[in-house]
Each structure stands twice: as structure tokens, then as C-alpha cells.
Queue: 2 jobs
Job 1
Amino acid sequence: MKNLLFAIVGLLLVCSHSVLAGRNVILIIGDGMDDKQISIARNYLVGARGKLTLDHMPVRGVAQVLTVTEQGQPVYVADSANSATSIATGEITSRGRIATSPGSDKSLPTIVEILEAQGYKTGLVATSSVTDATPASFVAHINMRYCENPETIHGAKMGPVTLPDCPSYTKANGGPGSISEQIAASEVDVVLGGGAKHFNITAENSEHSVAELARRNGYHVIESREDLASAPADKKLLGLFSPSTMPVRLQGEGAREAEAPKPSWANQLHPYLGSVKQPVPMNCEPNPAFKDMPSLKQMTETALARLHNDQGFFLMVESASIDKQSHERKPCGSIGELAQLNEALDSALAYAEDNPETLVLVTADHAQAAQMIPAESLFSKFPIPVYSPGKIALLRTPEGALLAVNYATNNFAYEEHTGANVAVFANREGIGRVPTMLTQPELFALMRDYIVQAEPSNMH
Amino acid sequence: MKNLLFAIVGLLLVCSHSVLAGRNVILIIGDGMDDKQISIARNYLVGARGKLTLDHMPVRGVAQVLTVTEQGQPVYVADSANSATSIATGEITSRGRIATSPGSDKSLPTIVEILEAQGYKTGLVATSSVTDATPASFVAHINMRYCENPETIHGAKMGPVTLPDCPSYTKANGGPGSISEQIAASEVDVVLGGGAKHFNITAENSEHSVAELARRNGYHVIESREDLASAPADKKLLGLFSPSTMPVRLQGEGAREAEAPKPSWANQLHPYLGSVKQPVPMNCEPNPAFKDMPSLKQMTETALARLHNDQGFFLMVESASIDKQSHERKPCGSIGELAQLNEALDSALAYAEDNPETLVLVTADHAQAAQMIPAESLFSKFPIPVYSPGKIALLRTPEGALLAVNYATNNFAYEEHTGANVAVFANREGIGRVPTMLTQPELFALMRDYIVQAEPSNMH
């Protein structure tokens, strides 16, 4: 009889636990982290036969990246703004848009806002500026990603070009202001990354900086790694560790990037003639500018410690510069940031070990330009110079081989994104929940339903 | 008592069935079918939000592609010879090798040979020449893929180049002869594809053609689609439907391929000046040369009908020209061949529905050059011409958008392969058997163990 009583009490405890205990989602986004980038980093970091932390995850599928024009027609290559909007809101939008609808500027509720309204804690961690497209799409609403602060909302300057402004979003016009102002006014519990310059600027209609508005909204604002540990636990935390994108961990030897092969004079006359000088092989080396930065792992662990609670939380962690370094044709930079992502994932998985109702997801927002090509051409037997029409880096790998990374999507200062479905990884909480294929917007409902413990929505 | 007896008999029947019934593997290889190629084909064939047959498969993982030099050092980009050797034999080898070991020319036993020796039926279907690297690696052993026939074994000519010969493999030197001669002497039950020219040639040390040697070895040899249906069931079948690679299903409008953007004179003086003329957009259209060819689906169904037996079989089906058309910068060609693969997969899945102990696997051997880039550059706001340094095709898709495919791995007549892990799909027989990640050589033991109903080998 006593045993039966114990059994019933035990059953009740188990049931109440499974119904009421808080659930957490840690979403890790590798910006531009397609399978090519993963393969390049794997070869360099752990060797061709090695496995990254990513590779050990028990669930692996793919997400279809979906983008439309303002008129709703399909577009086959995304940017981080529209793809992060897909993940954050479940809606498909156009390039450049931050959680707003194509054509109509409707604000799309984000998973962060929806969960906050239900009392869940939320956090955003990124190695980019926290105002950059990926983190911004989880907390802000604006029709142009470059309207990051009260100045650039009037049109950001990029070299010779003034990018589109966001007049209807200014406070003067009754809008919520720029992205940094929207973050300062937000209820996100932890925001960590770069982007101090977007906050150390006078807010619209105010004598105060955007950072000061954040303080008045309850944020403890820090700008150095040393201040991470001492931040008061009872306030929201805004950490801004660099003026814009945080410096990356690795760089090419002597800060070299991919370079154009140099055909001889004769080869320029006719492709069957002459010879070509390929870029000199190089190692990757530590980037000196990284040394004062908190690592992505450190920021992730800080966020996890602050978000840990009984009801559950949502944390988005972005390794931003896999993409940014690929735009700039810097393979070592991308490799180091993919290593940072794997280390942050180690921390997320360790947290999930201790807190089993934690779904850890890793995905990318879109594919990128970097291509691994043969260090020795498949056609090297032919008596003519064979070489990339773009830029190429030849990396000496720790396992003693040459890894050739080709960048050749355009002739501009920055490479293009590319189009391909991207990987979706999950820890064992994803088994039976994360299908082998889904669309990027379907990640939104999958994460929300997991946290609020709703029946999964039908995948549309 | 009678009921108990029935139950016991029933149980015995079930047990004997599960132990003794034959198991089949249908391995479908998309040559060069990386996730970019799949995404390009998906967009064109079923739209950005559509799903291919591939996408519906319940198991999806990736395979690490592994290649070494003759000395055993890692190489990061494979060719079809070494990667097919990985899949067929479980061993890692160097580029160009057909089921032989790097450095030492040791013949590596293939899954086809191992299963044949145990009495299983086997088949090889390809849209390439049946002597090409992928099918050859399952049945032949030679140190250079281009030694396809008794002439090219002395050094194949490719334009201005004589490729390496295979002197130690000639019959005069006690070897097994060229690839076509090895196929003619083989015990593979069904061999279907292109490559008649490699058989309609006098065999070494013989008055007869290689095809005649095949006949004397029990093959019924056919060279047209019409003869498929009437082939006698009691003989081995060798179908050779074109002189070399079979013509592909789709081509660009007017047989156009990707073309170089044409910068204006001023732009050639300075990248900030002038303008650029992009290639005119095009549709894909049927390739007239395809009309007399059996489809990959038809060849697959023929092979399945002939291989169907109580003990079990192994069938390899290759859609070869996803790769070959990508080498030639012909995106419509690759798309059509990926459609052919999906249709052959439909047939394989239908067979597996009727014959549940059939493992259907789909994978690729290596990644390829084709990249989807934005049809409108991410940097189109900048007042300078932005364009690919390579070749580009702008496809009009049936859903009314423009899909831009970029080829820019080299300046040669044929693009390079690229390096990335490739997808592995399986039907429900793969659940619990096909991990989310494995190395390409591990596919060999996985397939063999499934068919012979052994305990799975440890994945090394």
C-alpha cells in the first residue's frame, strides 16, 4: 500500500514535470554557413576525416531558403535580413527587410516578442553588430537593414552610394526609430555582440545617446569583456564589445586574403600560351585585433547563465562573420568563426545535458561564395595554364595538404551570396521534431511550439 | 492446442522469412549532385517551395568525400573514379583510379564482385558510357580511368594531350585488359548505358570485337531502346545505347550554355566605369538527340525486372551527366539529368514498396562547379557594373523568375569539381542504419552488411 502511494506520487511528479517544466531553445545560426563552408572548416580544423561538434549531432536535415520580391515573386538567393526574418517570424519576405512584410511594411511578430509577452526570457548573441540583419530580425521591424541608427535611418553611406532610407520609421513620423533605438526600447534580457557606434550616438528627438535610452529602459550597458562577469544579475544586459562587427579570430598570414592568379603576358594574348602565377600558399594565423574580444563561447555561456530559469527561454546565437569574411574573400576568417560556432555549440550542448528540455538547433541563413576547388587542377596534364577567373587562396592545412578556396561570384569588392538549401542540426530533443527537410520559415513554429509545449503546427 | 500449433508455425514462418528472405540494395548516384545542384534543379523543376522525390525521403545525412595522393596525403577535391571506388570498395584512393589502391596498384574487391561470389545478382545502369569512372569502379580494376578500351589503354588522346596509359594492365603484360574488356569478361547480370564505341573495337590478342567477347561470355548485347523489351531473360544483358555518354534530356534554348558577361570598353579600362552586357535569359528545351534514348527510369525498371529474385540483388544506377553538363557549363543539361534521377528513384521506391526488404540509397560522388548567384546582384545599387568573372546562364523558370547559374572555377574548357560533403538519402529501410554522417567508404560496408544480413560493421 505504501509502495502504491509512492508510485502514484511519483507518477504525479513526473506528469507535472513533463507538463509544467520550462523548455528552452538555443538557436545557433552560422551566417553563410553552407555545406561548402562546413567542409572547408572541417578540413582545416580537424582534417578531412575528422568530425566537428556539428557533425556529431543526432539530427541532420536541410532547410529550403525562401525569398520573394516586394511583389511576392520568387527570388533564388537570399540575404541575411530576409532569411533571419523567415526564422524569426515564420514569414517569407524580400531582401533587406527586418521582420516586415514585402510590399506592405507590416510588422511581423517575432518569436522573441511572442515569447516575451508570455513571460519567457530571451537573449540575442552575435559576433556582428547587434543591429545587424540577423539579430535585428528577432527584435526590430524596419524595411531596410541599413537603418541601424538615428543617422543611417536617413540613408546609410556605403562608399559612393547612399542606401535607401526608412523615413516612415523615424520617430518624427510616428515610427519606432532605427534598429539601435528599437533594441534600446526592447525587453530582450541579454543582448551581446558588436555595434557600440550605433548606440553611442544621439537618439532621435532626444538629448541622450541611444545607449542612455537603453539604460533608462533598464539595461546595464557594458563595452568590455572584463565587465561581463560583474554585470548585475537583476538588470537586462546590453554588451557592445566593438564599434561595429567584432574582430574575427583568424586571418591569413600577414592579413592576406584570396588573390587573383597572375597570367603571364603571353597568356593574356591567348589562353593556350604562356603561364600563370598562383598565389603563394599560406597558413592561417591569430588575428591580433581579436585578443580583447569575448569569444562567442564566452558570450553564449554568459547569456545561458543569465537566462537560466524555471519557465524557459529562447536564445539566438549568431556566428556572423563566416559570411562577412567570405564576402571579403578571407577563408581563414570564415574558418575561425566556424570554430567559434562549434565552441559555442559545445557550451549549448553542455547546458542541454544539465537541462534536458533544451532544444539545440544549428542552421545557416543562406549559402555563400567560397568554393573548395582542386589545389591541383583536374586538367593539370594539359599544356596550358589553368586557373580561377576570380580570386583564390591556397591554405596549408595542419594535416600537411593544400586547400584551395575560390571566390568568383562577381568582380566587386564583396562577393555575392549563393543559393542552396542549408543544413539544420539538432540535439536529441530534435529527434521526431525536426524533419529531414523543412522550409526556413517552418523553423519559427517548430521552436515556438517546443517552448510553449503546444502541439506542433502543421508544416505548410 | 490447434491454435497454439498455428501460432508456432506462423512464428517459424515469420522468423525464417526475416532470416532467409533476400534483401536488395538500389544505390542511385547523382554524379556531381551536391546540394547546390539539387537546389538549382528543385527551383527549376518544382519551384522554390516545391519538393523533389529526393526531398521526401525519410532519411537524410551526409557523406564525407575522401581522396588521397598516390603517397596517401589528403586531397580535398575528388574525381568520380576515386569517389566511386570509395563507395564500391570501402577504400580511399587517388584521383583517376578504378578500384585499385594508391601507390601500389592493388585490386580492391568491389561490392559487386563480393556479392556475385555469394550468388547474388548484380546490375549497373548509367547514362555515361558503362566504361566511365562510376560504373567501372564497381566491376573493373585499373590505375587510370581513361584506359576504357583496347586502344586507349595505350594512352587516350584528349585534344593536345595524351593521357597516361596502363601498360601493366594489358593482356600482353598479363593484365585483365581495358575497362570494356573487363566488363565483357564480367559476371554482372545487367549492364545498361552508353559506350558502344568502347566495345565495337577489336579486343587485345583477339580477332573479335570486345562486344563479341561479351557475347561469348554469355551477354546478350543490344544497342537500341527497342531491343530492351525483347532481351532474353536467361542471359546476361549488355545494353549500349550510344557511342559514348548518352545524350541528355534538356538543353539551353538553341543549345546555348553559360556565357561570359560582356563588359563595355570603358569598363575594361577601369572597373568603376562603363557597363556590362549580361547573357540574354533563356528557357530550357528538350534536347533533340535524347529522343531515341531509353530514359534512366526505363533502364532502371528493366534492370529491376531482370534482377528480381528470391536471394537478393545489388543495383547501382548513375545519373552521370549532372556532372558532365556542369563541366560544360550547361545548367539545363544538369537539371534534366537530375529530373531523370528523380524519376528513376520513383521506380526504385515503387519496387521497394512491393519488396519491403529493399534499401534505396541516393547519394553523390562529389560536388560540382555550378553556383546559384543572385540574378540581381546584392550590390546592384552601386553605380558600377557588377558581374561574374566566369560564365553565367540566366534561366527563366516556370514559376516566372530568373535563376542565375555561375561557373567560375577555372578558365579551361571544362569546369573543376568542388569539395564539400554530399547528401545521402535513404528510404525507410535506412532508418537506424544510415547515420546522419558517415564517410563515403563506409557506404560500402553498410550496403554489403544489409544485403548479406550481417551485423553492421563498426563505422571506422
Job 2
Amino acid sequence: MDVMTRIERALQTALARTGQPGCPPRLGQAMHHAVFPRGARIRPRLTLAVAAACGEDAPAVSDAAAIGIELMHCASLVHDDLPCFDDADTRRGRPSVHRAFGEPLAVLAGDALIVLAYQTLAQGAAAQPLRLGQLVLTLGQAVGVPCGIVAGQAWECEPAADLAQYQREKTGALFAAATVSGAVAAGSEGEPWRGLGAALGEAFQVADDILDATSDAATLGKPVGQDLAHARPSAVCQLGLDGAIMHLRHLAEEAVDAVPSCLGQSALRSHILTETLRLIPQELARTAA
Amino acid sequence: MDVMTRIERALQTALARTGQPGCPPRLGQAMHHAVFPRGARIRPRLTLAVAAACGEDAPAVSDAAAIGIELMHCASLVHDDLPCFDDADTRRGRPSVHRAFGEPLAVLAGDALIVLAYQTLAQGAAAQPLRLGQLVLTLGQAVGVPCGIVAGQAWECEPAADLAQYQREKTGALFAAATVSGAVAAGSEGEPWRGLGAALGEAFQVADDILDATSDAATLGKPVGQDLAHARPSAVCQLGLDGAIMHLRHLAEEAVDAVPSCLGQSALRSHILTETLRLIPQELARTAA
């Protein structure tokens, strides 16, 4: 089974709870809307690639780790889109959850997806229960206080804050959890994998800056030119387009160097280089080669 | 150390994450506002009472189980109070979190408290890691899909639903998790304790109906007479005040009968009878005696 099929099936299995007796139908629909159809699934693919490189011995645990990360990512998008934050009308080319289902169900769907991430971890880790604690803590570190994505978002409510830095930290936190969780799910030590995740998070942010400057809204499924319009710091504004592409290439190489020693080290390194450059359109990536 | 001191200290320890470097100060303040000063702490006291009755052997695990339940309860109050739900100005006699800190921080504080519940469980269960999976699943069952408090709240967004029933289920879900988690934290089987939690949840709901009909807002810290004003089904409307008090007494006895066989069965039974009747003012409880 290819990795995308594996991820979609595991997500379907996790969301199957919404079809069980007693679940309010519209809540289940709102949760599905937040998770399907698929995005790029960059984070769970990263978790599974790291687990494989570490000699994955418990696929159900890796699946749970990967899906836990993705559900948390989807939950954060639902809440970030709410009227009191970005007030976004669209996401992945479709109405945002609160536009499609109303604000109450968007709040509740986000809450339920956060909880579902942990339900999924606990159920998936049943065969290797000693790995659960670290997986729960890794996810919490990426999402909660003091420095997870919720905290990153909350810096927007502070009178003085370096928002650009916190935005980047916010992206990096979940990427770091993706790599650390992949290692933990495979029975390896997690912390040596944090640097790889952080480097990839930064690369992803630069790629996002490049797409914001070069794509059209139809391709991207969300408004473009937002960095320039909102005078947000962006790698493209700071370095120019070519400079940003070179920077992405540099970050990809940093990420490759950050892969810890493991069984599948060389395969993972080439996977990471390819995947990072695939974040931007091929014709731009060629500039970087 | 008395049980209330124990709970407050464990909550302070859990919330200490908000004082760590990198945490946005106002998010930390909003989370504290949601959790302190103390409410009655009925659910965590119940968890600890059950753990004790089961021959508690790992106090850090019982603390984590109790605090996980209470943090989840506080999170649900913060989100329930939001303008898109109850739009409540006050809670426990003080401004609700969104009134005090704004809507964005109320959404984020609720999210962070949900995550903190799981962080607390994972950290507290480190000494007994094989108990963590069941604790995580028990909490998820009480809060998430298909039938937890989030789902209960979401029934308000369905075109046709028996809201009274779902409100009661919503209350019952967290009480059931409180008793089940107490047993699991002490290394006992959890499911035999679900009936006790459900009975106590119903008793709590009836007590709440009685207080809504008989208290004043200053004593209760929230508006009173809401059941009559909103034509909500209430034990007092259905049975009259004396009937509701008799019903509460009956439910307390049902709860006493639902205590499974355990080391501290008889102590727990008298604790439950006393505590349930303490939910309403003494002069009313005497009517029931």
C-alpha cells in the first residue's frame, strides 16, 4: 500500500467514531470537512518516513502517531479560520468549516479533533503501551503551553511580540513533533530527531512564502499575495524570489544533514531532499538545482 | 493534606507550564482565570475518593486522573460560555474568560486546557505507564465523539434533538469518567465504576435544578431561574421542589448501591451519601432526610 493510501485509510478509521451511535450527524460532517479531501499530508508522511528509517516494528503505532499529528493540524486550521482570528472564508479551495457549518460547530469540531488525536494515539499504541506516554507528551509540547501552536497563535493577542518569529515557531513545532513521534513510534529515542523537524518546518515556511508570491488562488486553494498585502515578513520580500529559492535549497540540505544515524539514513536523506523541493513548482525548483 | 489542598496543589502544578519561558502571558492568565479560584471540584474529589476506595497505590497517577477531568471540565465551561454558544457574561461570580480576555484567548485557553489535561495524564502516569492508555481513552470517551460533552453540546446544532436528554448525558459523561478514571488510576478495572458515575451525574443535574429554582445569583455565582425563564425541563418543574429533593435523595441511594465491591466500599458509600446531599443547602437537605 502506498503511503498516501495508508494515511487516508488511517484517517478514515479514526473518523469512523463519528459514525457510531449517538454522534450528532452535523458534528461528524464538520469533522470530515476539516480532514477530507486530503491536503498534502506533509506531516504524517514525514512521521511515517522517519518511523520507516528507524526500522518500524509496530505499524499501528506509527499510523497513530502520524494521524495524531495530522488531526491536530486540521484542528488548528479550523480554529485559526474562525471569525475571531483569520475570519477565512475558504480553505483548500472550499468553504472553511465555520462558513459551511456555522461557528458553534467549527469550535466543537476543532475541540473534537484535538481529543480524537489523543483517542487515536491511545488506541493505536495498545500493542506498544510503553511508547504512549512519550507520544502524548510530544504532541502536547507541539500544541499546548508553553510553546506549541496554540501558544504561537496566542502571541497575536499580546501587546508586543515578534509575530514573525512566533509564526515560524508555530509551524516548526508540529514538524518537530512529526519527526520525534515517528522515531518514538518505532521504539527509538525521539529527541535526536527534533532538529530535522525544525529545519523542515523552516523550509516549509519558506516554500509557503514562495507559493504566496508566485501562485494563483485557484492552484493554492487559498488567497495569495497575502504577505505583501499585509506587509508580513516573507523570505521572498527579504531575499527576492531567486534568493528565497536558494534559501529553500540550503534549508533542505540542512535538513538532510540533521538526519540522525539510523537504519534507513540514506534513503531518508534522499526522500527529504526530493520532498522539500517538491513543495514548490518544478520550474522554480529547477532554479535551485 | 486534605483533599481540597491536594487538588489545588496538583492544579497549580499542572498550570505551572504557563509560567515557563515562551508562554504568552495573557494566555497563561486566561487559563488561570478558567481554573482558579476553585469551584467545588466535585469531579476530581470523586476521582480521588474512588481511587482511595480501590486501595490507591500511586498517588501521582490518581492526581493526574483527577486533574485531567477537572481541566477538561474547565475547558468545556470556557467554550460553552463563548458568544456563539451561551454568550455568558459571568461564571463563578466573575467575568467569563472571553469577557475578561477577549474571544480569541477564550478559544485558545480552552484548546490549551484540553491539551493540558492529556499532558498532565502522561506526566502523572510515568510511574505506572500501563495505566495511561485506559486513562486517555476514558477521558476521550467523556469529551469527544461519539458521545462525550463536545458531542452533547453539538446536539444543540441539530435540527431535531431531545436536548434535555443530551444535556443530562453531557453532565453524566464527565462524572462517569471521574469514577472510572479513579479506579483505573489505582490499578483496578474501570468499567464496573461507570454506573456510579452516571448515577452521580444525574443527581448533580437534579441538585443543579434545585439550586436554579431556590438560590440567588450572588450565592450561585451565575444567573438563577434560568430553567423557568427558558422553559427548560427541570426536576423542580416536573416534580415540584419537595419532589425534586426526594428524587435527589433517591438518586443518592442509587449511587450508594452502585458502588462496586472494593477495599473501601463502606467508607465510600457514606462519603457519597453525604456529598450528594451537600450539593443543596442544608435546610433543603433536611427535608429529604
